[in-house]
Amino acid sequence: MIKVLTIFGTRPEVIKLYPLIEELKEDKDFDTKILNTGQHKEMVNELLNIFNINPDFSLNIMEEKQSLEHITKGVLDGVGKILNEEKFDIVIVQGDTTTTFVSSLTSFYHKIPVGHVEAGLRTNNIYYPFPEEMNRILTDKLSTLDFAPTENAKNNLIKEGVDESKIFVTGNTIVDAIQKISNFNVNFNLNLPDDKKIITVTAHRRESWENGLSRIGNAIKKLSKIYKDIFFVIPIHKNPVVREKIIPILSGVDNVLITEPLDYINFVHLMKKSFLILSDSGGVQEEVPTLNKPLLLLRNETERPEAVKAGFVRIVGTDEDKIFENVKDIIDNGWKPISNYNPFGDGKASERIKKIIKEYFYGSI
Ligand code: UD1
Ligand code: UDP
Protein backbone atom coordinates (compact mmCIF):
# COMPACT_ATOMS: atom_id res chain seq x y z
CA MET A 1 0.00 0.00 0.00
CA ILE A 2 1.43 3.41 -1.03
CA LYS A 3 0.74 6.13 1.51
CA VAL A 4 0.13 9.41 -0.36
CA LEU A 5 -0.40 12.88 1.05
CA THR A 6 -1.96 15.32 -1.41
CA ILE A 7 -1.53 18.96 -0.40
CA PHE A 8 -3.40 22.00 -1.71
CA GLY A 9 -4.29 25.48 -0.47
CA THR A 10 -5.80 27.56 -3.27
CA ARG A 11 -8.65 27.37 -5.79
CA PRO A 12 -6.67 26.25 -8.86
CA GLU A 13 -4.83 23.56 -6.91
CA VAL A 14 -8.10 21.99 -5.74
CA ILE A 15 -9.60 22.08 -9.24
CA LYS A 16 -6.56 20.45 -10.83
CA LEU A 17 -5.94 17.92 -8.05
CA TYR A 18 -9.56 16.83 -7.77
CA PRO A 19 -9.38 14.28 -10.65
CA LEU A 20 -6.15 12.81 -9.24
CA ILE A 21 -7.59 12.59 -5.72
CA GLU A 22 -10.56 10.66 -7.13
CA GLU A 23 -8.24 8.41 -9.12
CA LEU A 24 -6.12 7.60 -6.06
CA LYS A 25 -9.14 7.11 -3.77
CA GLU A 26 -10.57 4.46 -6.10
CA ASP A 27 -7.35 2.42 -6.19
CA LYS A 28 -6.76 -0.14 -3.44
CA ASP A 29 -2.99 0.16 -3.83
CA PHE A 30 -3.16 3.66 -2.33
CA ASP A 31 -3.87 4.91 1.15
CA THR A 32 -4.54 8.54 0.33
CA LYS A 33 -4.80 11.46 2.73
CA ILE A 34 -5.47 15.11 2.01
CA LEU A 35 -4.02 18.25 3.58
CA ASN A 36 -5.60 21.67 3.05
CA THR A 37 -3.21 24.46 4.06
CA GLY A 38 -6.07 26.97 4.05
CA GLN A 39 -4.11 29.54 2.03
CA HIS A 40 -7.55 30.31 0.55
CA LYS A 41 -10.74 30.04 2.57
CA GLU A 42 -14.13 30.53 0.89
CA MET A 43 -12.75 29.95 -2.60
CA VAL A 44 -11.49 26.51 -1.55
CA ASN A 45 -14.24 25.50 0.87
CA GLU A 46 -16.90 25.90 -1.81
CA LEU A 47 -14.97 23.51 -4.06
CA LEU A 48 -14.49 20.95 -1.30
CA ASN A 49 -18.28 20.80 -0.94
CA ILE A 50 -18.91 20.47 -4.65
CA PHE A 51 -16.22 17.84 -5.17
CA ASN A 52 -16.99 16.07 -1.89
CA ILE A 53 -13.39 16.28 -0.71
CA ASN A 54 -12.89 15.88 3.04
CA PRO A 55 -9.38 16.88 4.06
CA ASP A 56 -7.76 14.77 6.77
CA PHE A 57 -5.72 17.80 7.89
CA SER A 58 -6.60 21.52 7.71
CA LEU A 59 -4.19 24.29 8.68
CA ASN A 60 -6.50 27.26 8.26
CA ILE A 61 -3.65 29.76 7.76
CA MET A 62 -5.42 32.47 5.73
CA GLU A 63 -5.58 36.01 7.05
CA GLU A 64 -6.76 39.15 5.30
CA LYS A 65 -4.24 40.65 2.88
CA GLN A 66 -1.70 38.04 3.90
CA SER A 67 1.97 38.46 3.06
CA LEU A 68 4.10 35.86 1.30
CA GLU A 69 6.04 35.47 4.55
CA HIS A 70 2.83 34.72 6.43
CA ILE A 71 1.86 31.93 3.99
CA THR A 72 5.40 30.55 3.95
CA LYS A 73 5.66 30.35 7.75
CA GLY A 74 2.18 28.90 8.17
CA VAL A 75 2.69 26.17 5.58
CA LEU A 76 6.22 25.32 6.73
CA ASP A 77 5.21 24.95 10.38
CA GLY A 78 1.87 23.27 9.72
CA VAL A 79 3.00 20.75 7.11
CA GLY A 80 6.14 20.09 9.18
CA LYS A 81 4.06 19.12 12.23
CA ILE A 82 1.93 16.72 10.22
CA LEU A 83 4.93 15.10 8.57
CA ASN A 84 6.49 14.65 12.04
CA GLU A 85 3.40 12.86 13.29
CA GLU A 86 2.58 10.64 10.35
CA LYS A 87 4.78 8.83 7.84
CA PHE A 88 4.00 9.17 4.11
CA ASP A 89 5.66 7.50 1.13
CA ILE A 90 5.06 10.43 -1.22
CA VAL A 91 3.66 13.96 -1.19
CA ILE A 92 1.75 15.33 -4.19
CA VAL A 93 1.62 19.07 -4.93
CA GLN A 94 0.26 20.99 -7.92
CA GLY A 95 1.21 24.16 -9.75
CA ASP A 96 3.06 27.22 -8.55
CA THR A 97 1.54 28.72 -5.42
CA THR A 98 3.36 29.36 -2.17
CA THR A 99 1.50 26.34 -0.72
CA THR A 100 3.00 24.26 -3.55
CA PHE A 101 6.59 25.40 -3.08
CA VAL A 102 6.66 25.42 0.72
CA SER A 103 4.96 22.01 0.96
CA SER A 104 7.64 20.59 -1.34
CA LEU A 105 10.38 22.19 0.72
CA THR A 106 8.95 20.78 3.95
CA SER A 107 8.62 17.32 2.39
CA PHE A 108 12.24 17.53 1.29
CA TYR A 109 13.26 18.35 4.86
CA HIS A 110 11.51 15.14 5.86
CA LYS A 111 13.15 13.20 2.99
CA ILE A 112 9.77 12.35 1.50
CA PRO A 113 9.64 12.17 -2.32
CA VAL A 114 7.52 14.85 -3.96
CA GLY A 115 5.43 14.46 -7.12
CA HIS A 116 4.89 17.80 -8.85
CA VAL A 117 1.76 18.00 -10.97
CA GLU A 118 2.09 20.65 -13.72
CA ALA A 119 5.88 20.74 -13.68
CA GLY A 120 8.07 22.66 -16.12
CA LEU A 121 6.00 25.76 -16.87
CA ARG A 122 8.28 28.76 -17.41
CA THR A 123 8.22 32.36 -18.61
CA ASN A 124 11.96 32.58 -17.86
CA ASN A 125 11.40 35.81 -15.96
CA ILE A 126 11.61 35.28 -12.20
CA TYR A 127 9.52 38.37 -11.49
CA TYR A 128 6.73 37.49 -13.92
CA PRO A 129 4.49 36.06 -12.69
CA PHE A 130 5.65 36.80 -9.16
CA PRO A 131 6.20 34.76 -7.06
CA GLU A 132 4.86 31.88 -9.17
CA GLU A 133 7.81 31.56 -11.60
CA MET A 134 10.27 31.05 -8.73
CA ASN A 135 7.80 28.78 -6.91
CA ARG A 136 7.74 26.51 -9.97
CA ILE A 137 11.50 26.46 -10.42
CA LEU A 138 12.07 25.60 -6.78
CA THR A 139 9.28 23.00 -6.66
CA ASP A 140 10.68 21.26 -9.74
CA LYS A 141 14.12 21.20 -8.12
CA LEU A 142 12.72 19.74 -4.91
CA SER A 143 10.56 17.07 -6.51
CA THR A 144 11.39 13.46 -7.33
CA LEU A 145 8.72 13.03 -10.03
CA ASP A 146 7.96 15.91 -12.40
CA PHE A 147 4.59 15.51 -14.13
CA ALA A 148 4.96 17.84 -17.11
CA PRO A 149 1.66 18.65 -18.85
CA THR A 150 3.20 19.08 -22.32
CA GLU A 151 6.37 18.32 -24.32
CA ASN A 152 7.22 22.02 -24.13
CA ALA A 153 7.18 21.88 -20.31
CA LYS A 154 9.37 18.78 -20.42
CA ASN A 155 11.86 20.60 -22.67
CA ASN A 156 11.98 23.53 -20.22
CA LEU A 157 13.04 21.11 -17.50
CA ILE A 158 15.64 19.42 -19.69
CA LYS A 159 17.12 22.83 -20.54
CA GLU A 160 17.58 23.39 -16.80
CA GLY A 161 19.45 20.13 -16.51
CA VAL A 162 16.69 18.11 -14.88
CA ASP A 163 17.32 14.39 -15.21
CA GLU A 164 15.07 13.19 -18.05
CA SER A 165 14.25 9.98 -16.21
CA LYS A 166 12.23 11.88 -13.61
CA ILE A 167 10.10 13.82 -16.15
CA PHE A 168 6.80 12.39 -17.41
CA VAL A 169 4.55 14.07 -19.97
CA THR A 170 1.03 13.42 -18.72
CA GLY A 171 -1.27 16.15 -20.08
CA ASN A 172 -2.82 18.70 -17.76
CA THR A 173 -5.33 17.49 -15.15
CA ILE A 174 -7.47 20.58 -15.89
CA VAL A 175 -8.80 18.73 -18.95
CA ASP A 176 -9.74 15.80 -16.70
CA ALA A 177 -11.47 18.26 -14.33
CA ILE A 178 -13.59 19.89 -17.04
CA GLN A 179 -14.56 16.50 -18.43
CA LYS A 180 -15.53 15.26 -14.98
CA ILE A 181 -17.75 18.23 -14.16
CA SER A 182 -19.62 17.91 -17.44
CA ASN A 183 -21.66 15.26 -15.57
CA PHE A 184 -22.58 17.68 -12.77
CA ASN A 185 -25.92 19.48 -12.60
CA VAL A 186 -25.61 23.19 -13.36
CA ASN A 187 -27.65 25.41 -11.12
CA PHE A 188 -26.77 28.66 -12.90
CA ASN A 189 -27.70 31.58 -10.69
CA LEU A 190 -26.67 34.65 -12.69
CA ASN A 191 -29.31 36.72 -14.38
CA LEU A 192 -27.83 37.45 -17.81
CA PRO A 193 -29.58 39.45 -20.54
CA ASP A 194 -30.63 37.29 -23.51
CA ASP A 195 -30.10 40.07 -26.06
CA LYS A 196 -26.43 40.79 -25.32
CA LYS A 197 -23.14 39.03 -25.99
CA ILE A 198 -21.25 38.03 -22.85
CA ILE A 199 -17.61 38.83 -22.11
CA THR A 200 -16.25 37.18 -18.96
CA VAL A 201 -13.39 38.92 -17.16
CA THR A 202 -11.11 37.74 -14.33
CA ALA A 203 -7.90 39.34 -13.04
CA HIS A 204 -5.91 38.92 -9.86
CA ARG A 205 -2.15 38.73 -10.56
CA ARG A 206 0.19 40.41 -8.08
CA GLU A 207 2.06 42.19 -10.93
CA SER A 208 -1.18 43.99 -11.79
CA TRP A 209 -2.04 45.23 -8.29
CA GLU A 210 -0.24 48.53 -8.70
CA ASN A 211 -1.59 49.80 -12.04
CA GLY A 212 -2.71 46.92 -14.23
CA LEU A 213 -6.05 46.29 -12.51
CA SER A 214 -7.08 49.95 -12.81
CA ARG A 215 -6.14 49.97 -16.48
CA ILE A 216 -8.19 46.80 -17.06
CA GLY A 217 -11.15 48.41 -15.23
CA ASN A 218 -10.86 51.60 -17.29
CA ALA A 219 -10.72 49.68 -20.57
CA ILE A 220 -13.90 47.77 -19.67
CA LYS A 221 -15.64 50.98 -18.64
CA LYS A 222 -14.81 52.59 -21.97
CA LEU A 223 -15.92 49.52 -23.93
CA SER A 224 -19.19 49.24 -22.02
CA LYS A 225 -20.06 52.85 -22.90
CA ILE A 226 -19.55 52.26 -26.62
CA TYR A 227 -20.80 48.69 -27.07
CA LYS A 228 -24.28 48.59 -25.57
CA ASP A 229 -24.92 45.09 -26.90
CA ILE A 230 -22.08 43.61 -24.83
CA PHE A 231 -22.51 42.50 -21.22
CA PHE A 232 -19.39 42.13 -19.06
CA VAL A 233 -19.43 39.63 -16.19
CA ILE A 234 -16.63 39.93 -13.64
CA PRO A 235 -16.57 37.21 -10.94
CA ILE A 236 -14.19 39.10 -8.71
CA HIS A 237 -11.40 37.41 -6.74
CA LYS A 238 -11.80 37.51 -2.94
CA ASN A 239 -8.54 39.40 -2.52
CA PRO A 240 -9.40 42.85 -1.05
CA VAL A 241 -6.49 44.39 -2.97
CA VAL A 242 -8.13 43.34 -6.24
CA ARG A 243 -11.55 44.56 -5.11
CA GLU A 244 -10.27 47.95 -4.01
CA LYS A 245 -8.87 48.57 -7.49
CA ILE A 246 -11.70 47.25 -9.69
CA ILE A 247 -14.95 47.94 -7.85
CA PRO A 248 -14.68 51.76 -7.60
CA ILE A 249 -14.09 51.98 -11.36
CA LEU A 250 -16.85 49.64 -12.47
CA SER A 251 -19.61 49.64 -9.87
CA GLY A 252 -22.84 51.07 -11.24
CA VAL A 253 -21.55 51.01 -14.82
CA ASP A 254 -24.23 49.86 -17.30
CA ASN A 255 -23.77 46.38 -18.74
CA VAL A 256 -21.14 45.39 -16.18
CA LEU A 257 -21.95 42.80 -13.53
CA ILE A 258 -19.45 42.30 -10.71
CA THR A 259 -20.22 39.10 -8.81
CA GLU A 260 -18.64 37.05 -6.06
CA PRO A 261 -16.34 34.31 -7.43
CA LEU A 262 -18.49 31.64 -9.05
CA ASP A 263 -18.22 28.02 -8.06
CA TYR A 264 -16.37 26.01 -10.67
CA ILE A 265 -19.48 24.48 -12.24
CA ASN A 266 -21.08 27.89 -12.68
CA PHE A 267 -17.87 29.51 -13.88
CA VAL A 268 -17.33 26.92 -16.61
CA HIS A 269 -20.97 27.39 -17.60
CA LEU A 270 -20.40 31.16 -17.80
CA MET A 271 -17.33 30.65 -19.99
CA LYS A 272 -19.38 28.43 -22.29
CA LYS A 273 -21.98 31.19 -22.61
CA SER A 274 -19.32 33.85 -23.35
CA PHE A 275 -18.24 34.87 -26.80
CA LEU A 276 -14.94 36.17 -25.45
CA ILE A 277 -12.92 35.84 -22.23
CA LEU A 278 -10.48 38.39 -20.78
CA SER A 279 -8.26 36.99 -18.04
CA ASP A 280 -4.83 36.87 -16.43
CA SER A 281 -5.52 33.44 -14.96
CA GLY A 282 -3.24 30.47 -15.47
CA GLY A 283 -6.03 27.92 -15.28
CA VAL A 284 -8.34 29.78 -17.65
CA GLN A 285 -5.62 29.76 -20.34
CA GLU A 286 -5.65 25.98 -20.09
CA GLU A 287 -9.43 25.73 -20.15
CA VAL A 288 -10.18 27.69 -23.32
CA PRO A 289 -8.93 24.99 -25.72
CA THR A 290 -11.30 22.46 -24.13
CA LEU A 291 -14.16 24.96 -24.27
CA ASN A 292 -13.19 26.21 -27.74
CA LYS A 293 -13.30 29.86 -26.67
CA PRO A 294 -11.03 32.82 -27.51
CA LEU A 295 -9.11 34.47 -24.66
CA LEU A 296 -7.36 37.83 -24.49
CA LEU A 297 -4.59 37.39 -21.96
CA LEU A 298 -4.23 40.34 -19.57
CA ARG A 299 -0.53 39.70 -19.06
CA ASN A 300 2.65 40.44 -21.00
CA GLU A 301 4.09 36.94 -20.88
CA THR A 302 2.80 33.42 -20.61
CA GLU A 303 4.14 30.12 -19.36
CA ARG A 304 1.43 28.44 -21.44
CA PRO A 305 2.59 29.24 -25.01
CA GLU A 306 0.80 26.10 -26.23
CA ALA A 307 -2.55 27.89 -25.96
CA VAL A 308 -1.22 30.82 -28.01
CA LYS A 309 0.22 28.51 -30.66
CA ALA A 310 -3.01 26.55 -30.89
CA GLY A 311 -4.81 29.84 -31.60
CA PHE A 312 -6.95 30.17 -28.48
CA VAL A 313 -5.03 32.89 -26.64
CA ARG A 314 -3.81 36.32 -27.73
CA ILE A 315 -1.34 38.08 -25.41
CA VAL A 316 -2.57 41.63 -24.82
CA GLY A 317 -1.11 42.80 -21.49
CA THR A 318 -2.71 45.44 -19.30
CA ASP A 319 -2.36 48.58 -21.40
CA GLU A 320 -5.77 50.28 -21.45
CA ASP A 321 -5.68 51.19 -25.17
CA LYS A 322 -4.38 47.80 -26.19
CA ILE A 323 -7.18 46.02 -24.33
CA PHE A 324 -9.72 48.39 -25.86
CA GLU A 325 -8.38 47.95 -29.40
CA ASN A 326 -8.20 44.16 -29.17
CA VAL A 327 -11.72 43.77 -27.81
CA LYS A 328 -12.99 46.27 -30.41
CA ASP A 329 -11.26 44.28 -33.15
CA ILE A 330 -12.90 41.05 -32.03
CA ILE A 331 -16.33 42.65 -31.71
CA ASP A 332 -16.01 44.26 -35.14
CA ASN A 333 -14.20 41.52 -37.03
CA GLY A 334 -14.81 38.36 -35.01
CA TRP A 335 -12.25 35.83 -33.90
CA LYS A 336 -12.83 32.15 -33.78
CA PRO A 337 -10.05 29.93 -32.47
CA ILE A 338 -8.27 28.40 -35.42
CA SER A 339 -7.95 24.84 -34.23
CA ASN A 340 -9.78 22.15 -32.34
CA TYR A 341 -6.49 20.69 -31.14
CA ASN A 342 -6.20 20.67 -27.36
CA PRO A 343 -2.53 21.12 -26.39
CA PHE A 344 -3.28 20.29 -22.75
CA GLY A 345 -4.24 16.70 -23.26
CA ASP A 346 -7.06 14.21 -23.48
CA GLY A 347 -8.48 14.09 -19.95
CA LYS A 348 -6.41 11.09 -18.88
CA ALA A 349 -3.59 12.94 -17.10
CA SER A 350 -4.59 11.77 -13.60
CA GLU A 351 -4.76 8.16 -14.72
CA ARG A 352 -1.23 8.46 -16.12
CA ILE A 353 0.08 10.16 -12.99
CA LYS A 354 -1.35 7.43 -10.77
CA LYS A 355 0.24 4.75 -12.96
CA ILE A 356 3.64 6.46 -12.82
CA ILE A 357 3.49 6.70 -9.01
CA LYS A 358 2.70 2.99 -8.84
CA GLU A 359 5.57 2.12 -11.14
CA TYR A 360 7.90 4.29 -9.07
CA PHE A 361 7.11 2.25 -5.95
CA TYR A 362 6.44 -1.20 -7.46
CA GLY A 363 9.16 -1.23 -10.10
CA SER A 364 9.91 -0.42 -13.73
CA ILE A 365 10.91 3.22 -13.11
C1 UD1 B 1 -2.87 32.89 -4.79
C2 UD1 B 1 -1.54 32.40 -5.36
C3 UD1 B 1 -1.54 32.59 -6.88
C4 UD1 B 1 -2.75 31.95 -7.52
C5 UD1 B 1 -4.02 32.43 -6.83
C6 UD1 B 1 -5.22 31.68 -7.35
C7 UD1 B 1 0.52 32.67 -4.02
C8 UD1 B 1 1.54 33.61 -3.53
N1 UD1 B 1 -0.44 33.21 -4.80
O1 UD1 B 1 -2.94 34.29 -5.05
O2 UD1 B 1 -0.37 31.98 -7.42
O3 UD1 B 1 -2.79 32.30 -8.88
O4 UD1 B 1 -3.93 32.20 -5.42
O5 UD1 B 1 -6.41 32.37 -7.06
O6 UD1 B 1 0.55 31.51 -3.71
N2 UD1 B 1 -8.90 35.75 0.13
C9 UD1 B 1 -10.10 35.55 0.80
N3 UD1 B 1 -10.74 34.35 0.64
C10 UD1 B 1 -10.26 33.36 -0.15
C11 UD1 B 1 -9.06 33.59 -0.84
C12 UD1 B 1 -8.39 34.80 -0.68
O7 UD1 B 1 -10.57 36.40 1.54
O8 UD1 B 1 -10.90 32.30 -0.24
C13 UD1 B 1 -8.19 37.06 0.31
C14 UD1 B 1 -7.47 37.17 1.66
O9 UD1 B 1 -7.56 38.49 2.13
C15 UD1 B 1 -6.01 36.84 1.29
C16 UD1 B 1 -5.94 37.45 -0.09
O10 UD1 B 1 -7.19 37.18 -0.69
O11 UD1 B 1 -5.09 37.38 2.18
C17 UD1 B 1 -4.82 36.95 -0.96
O12 UD1 B 1 -4.75 35.54 -1.00
P1 UD1 B 1 -3.35 34.85 -1.44
O13 UD1 B 1 -3.54 33.37 -1.49
O14 UD1 B 1 -2.25 35.38 -0.62
O15 UD1 B 1 -3.10 35.43 -2.88
P2 UD1 B 1 -3.90 35.24 -4.23
O16 UD1 B 1 -3.86 36.54 -4.95
O17 UD1 B 1 -5.21 34.60 -3.96
N1 UDP C 1 -12.57 29.96 -11.52
C1 UDP C 1 -13.72 29.65 -10.79
N2 UDP C 1 -14.56 30.67 -10.43
C2 UDP C 1 -14.31 31.96 -10.74
C3 UDP C 1 -13.14 32.28 -11.46
C4 UDP C 1 -12.27 31.25 -11.82
O1 UDP C 1 -13.98 28.48 -10.51
O2 UDP C 1 -15.12 32.81 -10.39
C5 UDP C 1 -11.66 28.84 -11.90
C6 UDP C 1 -11.16 28.85 -13.32
O3 UDP C 1 -12.06 28.14 -14.16
C7 UDP C 1 -9.83 28.13 -13.20
C8 UDP C 1 -9.35 28.52 -11.81
O4 UDP C 1 -10.49 29.01 -11.12
O5 UDP C 1 -9.96 26.72 -13.22
C9 UDP C 1 -8.29 29.57 -11.93
O6 UDP C 1 -8.04 30.13 -10.70
P1 UDP C 1 -7.30 31.52 -10.54
O7 UDP C 1 -7.53 32.36 -11.75
O8 UDP C 1 -7.71 32.04 -9.22
O9 UDP C 1 -5.78 31.08 -10.41
P2 UDP C 1 -4.62 30.79 -11.46
O10 UDP C 1 -5.08 29.71 -12.38
O11 UDP C 1 -4.33 32.09 -12.16
O12 UDP C 1 -3.48 30.37 -10.60
Record keyword descriptors for this entry:
365 residues, alpha/beta, Rossmann fold, seven-stranded parallel beta sheet, 45% helix, binds uridine-diphosphate-N-acetylglucosamine, binds uridine-5'-diphosphate
Number of H- or I-type helical stretches: 14
Distinct small molecules: uridine-diphosphate-N-acetylglucosamine, uridine-5'-diphosphate
Radius of gyration: 20 Å
For this structure, what is the CATH homologous superfamily of the largest domain?
Glycogen Phosphorylase B
Q: Element order, helices and strands?
A: EHEHEHEHEHEHEHEHEHEHEHEHEHH
Q: What is the helix fraction of residues, given as a range? A: 40-55%
Low-pLDDT segments: none
Largest sheet: 7 strands, parallel
Write a structural description:
Strands 3-2-1-4-5-6-7 form a seven-stranded parallel beta sheet, sandwiched between helices. It has a six-stranded parallel beta sheet with strand order 10-9-8-11-12-13, with helices on both faces. The two termini are 17 Å apart. It has 14 helices and 13 strands. The chain has 365 residues and is α/β, with parallel strands linked by helices. The protein folds into two domains: 2-171 and 348-362, 3-Layer(aba) Sandwich (Rossmann fold); 197-333, Glycogen Phosphorylase B (Rossmann fold). Strand 9, helix 9 (240-250) and strand 10 form a beta-alpha-beta unit. It is globular. The site of uridine-diphosphate-N-acetylglucosamine (UD1) has 23 residues, from helix 1, helix 2 and helix 3.
Entry summary:
This protein has 14 helices and 13 strands. By secondary structure, the chain is an alpha/beta fold. The chain is globular and about 60 Å long.
